[in-house]
Amino acid sequence: MPLSNKHLLGLQGVSKEDINLILDTAKTFREVLERPIKKVPTLQGKTIVNLFYESSTRTRISFELAEKRLSADTVNFAVSTSSVNKGESLKDTIRNIEAMKIDMVVIRHSAAGTPLYLTKVCDASIINAGDGIHEHPTQALLDMYSIRERAGKLKGLKICIVGDIAHSRVALSNVFGLITMGAKVSVCGPATMIPRRIDELGVNVIHDIDEAIQENDILNVLRIQLERKAGANFPSLREYATYFGITQDRLERNRKDILILHPGPINRGIEISSEVADGSDQIILTQVTNGVAVRMAVLYLLGTQN
Ligand code: CP
Known about the structure:
The chain is an alpha/beta fold and 306 residues long. The protein contains eleven helices and nine strands. It has a five-stranded parallel beta sheet. It has a four-stranded parallel beta sheet with strand order 2-1-3-4, with helices on both faces. The longest helix is centred in the last third of the chain and has 20 residues, at 284-303.
């Protein structure tokens, strides 16, 4: 059964059936990753370009590994050594790359809407690897995969996304995906970091982190995005850590059996303490492992549509 769309631009409007198809397909690829030879010939002959205009460790390496595990030919575009530095536009860049006969583009860009723009100017399948503060769909899919793997379901689970909601593409993709899958979603953070009218998406807003811990099964803790000037939204990092940081003391005071996710990279000692980030309640590195399988599933489903 194919996906309903040729591109993966975000999870807004993506159906429950499509999300289940991606998560179920990822399960089979997760098994491939446990084999001595972690490679299948599924995308042999397909060419995929990874266009990363913004920094990344996890997503870039995860996509590249997923492409190699599927036997696709991959090309990594490094902005710092490209003709972007000579003033070449995004449109000219992608049209020149497409002229070399490619099938799919994975794009990360600081400007929201860039993946959608690429669908208008080239014929390849476009996968959004994070566009500004808009969406990061494969991160939310791997978060949902990891939650489902641990809890056995998504429907009815109480999941709170904590922290810098306003600057977070991870938050928005999680909200769209989790609500579609029937989870009860809340967000928690300082009022300055919660977008106005977010409740209209079906999300409950909590401003007290202790209440968020008590009332939820899962916390997805977000990074404070200092590069997007998030620090201007509260008096100091120390105060943020005091009032919203997830520490072992705070978990034990409220409720211990809770599952902690974090998309990374982590600001240790700010949104999460090292004790929690390395402790027994978290699945942070499991998320990273599952990310390769989820991206294999997305690439496979989009790359074998025609
Ligand atoms: N979670 C995430 O997107 O990490 P990177 O920025 O390292 O890709």
